[in-house]
Amino acid sequence: MVMLASVLVAATFTRTLERVATMDPAMARSVYDSHAVQLVYEPPLEIDYKARPYKLVPGFELPEVSADGLTYVFRVKVKSEVEQRNLSTCAFGLEKDANHHCSTSTFDFDFTSADVVRSLERLRDPKVVSPNGWIMKDVDRMKALDAKTVCHFFPWLMAMSACGIRGPNGEGTGPYELTHWRKNHEMIFKRKSNCAFTSFDEVKYLVVDDVSTQWLMFLKGELDFLGEISRDNFDSVVGADGRLDPALGKLGVKLHSIPTLEVLHVGFNMRDPVLGSNRKLRQALNAAFDYPAWEKFYNGRILPCTTPVPPGVEGRLEDPFPYAFDLEKAKALLAEAGYADGIDPKTGRRLVLTMSIGRPNQESREAGELMAAFYEKIGVKLELDFKTWNAFQKAVNEGRVQMFRMGWVGDYPDAQNFLQLFYSKNVNPGPNHANYANPEFDREYDAAIDAKTASERNAHWAKCQEIVQEDCPWIFTHVNKAYSLVRPTVKNYVPTDFPYGVEKYYENAVP
What we know:
single chain, alpha+beta, Dipeptide-binding Protein, domain 1, D-Maltodextrin-Binding Protein, domain 2, Dipeptide-binding Protein, domain 3, 3 domains, 7-stranded mixed beta sheet, 4-stranded mixed beta sheet, 14 helices, 25% helix
């Protein structure tokens, strides 16, 4: 029986969050960094908290776009009158203060376009070495370098945490300020005194590695929100019908579930001499991936991954994946690849492949062992190489892995954000960690960027996905479904793929 304790501190919203590495928007690279950064620093645009499909809303104002599509003008209402300044392809026009209230943004410093210029220029400053430099890499100070520089997805970039605007002394325009940070333990954000619309006075993030401890803390009332339900607890929380356990429901706990923009995969290093030049082998490894068993392992909390573009994103190819699970097909492809029955003809022994995994916890170990069991069935031995997350990232970026298990969380809901992972100009240390390079793919990708209409663009995106499906630079494993639990102390919670800084929309249900 589930027992739920009462809440002790109603004015504080408390949840767990993995380790935050930085509060500098330019240096933020993980979803955990983004959670914290956007409580304090607001980007020029925001993603609407409730609108589905997702749409942009003003952080400043929605941009005016020139007829040629190369100049975006953002109007910013500030406290003092300053001259108009231009930033790259984005001209940030300024107006005098027009009672810009906290309900949209909170300006605690004399916010000018100079702050916008400085913040975004830091992304490509060689002294800063921002991992988010790609956002501004093709942008000139006054105009586009070529017709591709600013395209249909550019406004989405302006809603990313990395574009958060900082004042001269590190100030932010968000409704909260960081008042306490004990690294690897907790972060506390206090609501600014001039911000009346945010209901919770305080937001607290706790680092709690053990999922069982997280669950107990939620039941005891020490957490208002649980963003992940562990495999071990899932069956006791969610029934076979997908509904919340009645005991929790009676206590006011709400269960939320949505498909996410998180695409999980096993990447092949295309520079590897065994895998990179043997497409049949990569196809065979996809066909041997037992998705039904994988789905059962994850308690049905996942969706099949048939293309790098997840469900719900415009431009997604809906055609079935030609190398979905089919054991006999996998064996036939393996023989065509030159490894009949899994035997390497060069050694006369079984083919041995190595998959690197970051964050070696119990779930990742069990998942790795399950995947190894899949390939036993076609005679291939899969060895698991566990590394710390930092060591894993370094090895992947340097190309010192053969196979690697990784996920990609969409920065914005556009097919380009996912297909850029296969563009040859983005190979390591860029987001194309598979080091995949196909001139045909690049031509279609460039054509999509240049397309003038959505239908034309989506036709090129479809071709890109067909090419990737045939080349198999990944093992397409799954798309995550997100399950979250919210206590009755919190109102106005809406699940979203972009939960960065959204605590400002939550309402305290305790009088």
